[in-house]
Queue: 3 jobs
Job 1
Amino acid sequence: MGRRFGWLWAAYAASAAGTGLAFDALPLIAILVLHAGPAQVAALAAVGRAAGAVLALPLGPWVEFHRKRPVMVAMDLVRCAALLSVPAAFLLGRLGFAQLLVVAVVATAAEHAFRAAAGAYLKALVAPADLLVANARFEATTWTTTALGPPLGGAAIGLFGPMTTVLANAAGFLLSAAGIRAIGGREPRPARTGATRMRAADLLDGWRHLLSDPVLRPLFLNTVLVNGLVLAAAPPLAVLMLGPLGFAPWQYGLALAGPCLGGLLGARLAGPLVARFGRHRVLRAAGTLRVLWPVGLAFVGPGTSGLLLVVAVELALITCIGVYNPVLATTRLERTPTGLVARTLAAWSVTGGLVTAALTALCGLLAEAVGPRQAIAAAGLALLATPLLLPRARQSA
């Protein structure tokens, strides 16, 4: 798809590699360095996502009417600087839970803006016929780096201390910014029709589009709820595995990273499956299959058998997600007008952040009250009802 897409893909890979190495870095630092409990770990995830999403609310319209590459570079540099503040404070003996919250908020807001800009830039860069291939390559890259990163990150934490992976994450964002700069070419400034200044109505345009489109509306509601429930169970699972069950950080990373190879397989299968069965059937099937497995995590025990159970559940879950995500991303871009892409992606991302934050906080409170195992089971059972939100009738996508 050309040299410019190659640089964009390389930048994405650099960022994803750093994020993979630093998988759950802030919660792990909270647990291992600050000795945080289930409620604090859940609060770190929930407050970071919620406050970051609220902070990102005006960024969607702002991104829409600015050149996308400079926005992406700026957001990478913001995330890099925020993460570097953590090891700096640690070395000075000043690291506290409040700083981790601030870093989580800033990084989340910058991530929302980056995603909005990146999606709009990809649609302008790649031919419509190549969108599914491009999204599948990004999805495959995500799962590859997530498979390789956490075990290496866990080993690095054991050898060099808990700040190692945060530094790797910051370096990944720095390399991503350099790659985006290297794309080259001249990007025209988006033309704005109507009012010359951002209006309050601009904040709602993305949601209006999502909720009025008969295909995107059910996909939007289903996806934000499923993602929220899956991520909400992650802090109780971390506390359970690293606490009462006695798993080492490298074992925790291995149990969650190895199955990510299923995401690589799913991403490779997405295109052929769509070609054979059609987009609607693939979204329905993969969207349903992906929610059947997480309830099994409530039965994890100590030792090798417990580790193998987590691997099996995560492998099934992530393989289905690997098929679903690129097909969803392509459908979303194709059904969104060019001048509305950034606002639509921002609305989707912000809503997902808020829903995930609320569900994570609720799951954390439940874990504190009745135990992490029961909280994981509750999230898994709730997931089983989410296929009811998927599109039912075949529609043009």
Note: The chain has a mean pLDDT of 86.
Job 2
Amino acid sequence: MHVPDGFIDAPVSVATGVVAAGAVAVSLRGARRELDERTAPLAGLVAAFIFAVQMLNFPVAAGTSGHLLGGALAAILVGPYTGVLCVSVVLLMQGVLFADGGLTALGVNITDMAVVTTVVAYAIFRTIVKLAPHRRRTVTVASFVAALISVPAAAIAFTAIYALGGTADVSIGKVFTAMVGVHVLIGIGEAAITALTVGAVVAVRPDLVYGARGVTARPLEIRDSPLAPAAPGAVARAEAPAAEPATAGPTTAEPTTAEPTVATSRTPEPVAAPRRSARHVWWAGLAAALLCAGVVSFYASASPDGLEKVAHDKGIDQKAEDHAAKDSPLADYGVKDISDARISGGLAGVIGVGATLAVGSGVFIVVRRRRATAESGRV
């Protein structure tokens, strides 16, 4: 759904650019509350993973393909504010390095693919999680539904933007019907990818999934040990001594006063479990991203995606413009001067994953450090 240059006129492009810039500014502040020392590097990995999976176009109808948008996945894994930043980094890298999505339309793409998908998906996700039983399966199901709805929501948002600033004289009703229809099908693929990814992470490390906080955590359970002392205030009853055999002659029994023995103990306090390293998850995610971008992407569908197909069929692309970065050495996800398509595409994908990971991790680490600086300043 990457909107190229020329689809939207200049005034609306500028307006969506302002909206996108404002959303990114708000997200930078909000991400400070979502990121910690473990999740900041993971957020960069999420951006790289979304970049990689977006290269895997899957067929959805005759002559049409779709790809992951990633807003739902990012929001659930690392939080809605951080999710907006993740997808924004991906769109920036795609536009600058790979000539995918217009540079003058960057505000349109961020507003549509980063802001709308993330906000809609996370709102639906949280609603389902609050209403449904608190189980791990609930997180996966909520992820599926949220991702499914977020894609046609982005299609509706694009139709609204096009109604305000479309450069071609096309019936908005036809655009709406075609865009929503095909993106409902694309949403099924988005939902499957999102649910499988979130479910896999929740199964091994639910503590790293932002949307699963408070849902998958089990309450602290304190079990009594047979060696533990009695509870405070409990009175230990002295057992009566066994009867002694009778002896000849009178005996004098000394009176004794039995006092109850009170066992006291402290109530055990919950001990915070040490934080587990996320290093293994990070490496596994990076390997998956490199595999998708460097190998699996060669087998992706070559059919145009939903927006490209609708634009061609309905005439939206009448005034499309050449991309400003069309001469980039990585344009169209291939390395210039490498004739072998498999090697060219795979190498471009690997470079894209590395660049997105570096830029994304840098952004999120800086955001995290600013939070740490602000907290130390208050102390």
Note: Strands lie at 58-61, 64-66, 235-236, 261-262.
Job 3
Amino acid sequence: MRPDTPAENVDHTAEAARLERTAGLYPEDAEALLLRAAAHLELSGDRPAAAALYDRLLASDTELESPHLVRALKASNLWEYGHEAEARAIIDGIRAAAPRDPASWVVVAESLEAHDELEQAHEMFTEAVRLLLTDVPEPPAAAHPLLFGRHRVRRMLGAAHDEWDALADTVHSLPITLDELHDPKRVWSLGSENPAELEAEISRLRAEVGAYRMALSRPFPVAVLHWPADELTELLEAYPSLAIEYPSHEEHLATIETALRELASSGTPNLGIVPGTVPSYEAFAASEGTTPDDAYLLPQYATTLAARGRAMPWPPQRSAPCWCGSGRPYGECHGA
């Protein structure tokens, strides 16, 4: 269940509890699962419980993949239920740490924006853009919300377009321009009695919602299983009967790219790749009451990993490292 699902369609409290139980079963995925649980708790209105989950993650002995993102989400949540001073202190700490993760910058900047701190939000967006995108040939998809958020705040402030705004226009792919989406006067259109104005505004809002949904993480992609070379060697040594599925590692990699391209051409959205490991696969087989040499288990294993947040979205940007682990840009490797 996606955390942005409307409350009338899901019991957010029950979903948060289910994710917490799943995190207990898969401690290696606890960070991603508990962050999603906290999102559900925030949507349910239980912000103190969400804060407790953020604190649980930050106090864990396990090293977090995105500690600054957890702190940013905690700050945003605290501010929403009256702990402004603590939230501001956390935001100042994140800014001083200058993380390389775009998501943490987006969360704190949008939190400032939501509380009408437009000048500070603009400073935060601008600092992040300069830190992460200066001399970068192609902005990564994860950094697009920084450019869009900065553009939006500058429109609210009445600032003239600059080079970063021009870059935001370049990476923006929706039919309605950013200037239209971020026009401060749009809010007045919602109070209009003119049906044409209302219809135009609804169209703009739909496009904006689409942009936000595209920027959200994708916890349940249609995922294809990828065995790194050493893991595939170990898998076939332990279970030789699976060699019929994987004649060679090179063919395995080519099959992944071909399968994903066919899915994409058929209109299947939300595609991803999940890396497998032999110990994890053996544990999954045991939990299913079968043996790892059962080839029918492989797609189920991939789906389970994807549901636990282990999938990488496909395709990568052409300048990003290829999903196969070669270290080469995707556009020069499997994306060629």
Note: The first strand starts at residue 222 and ends at 226.
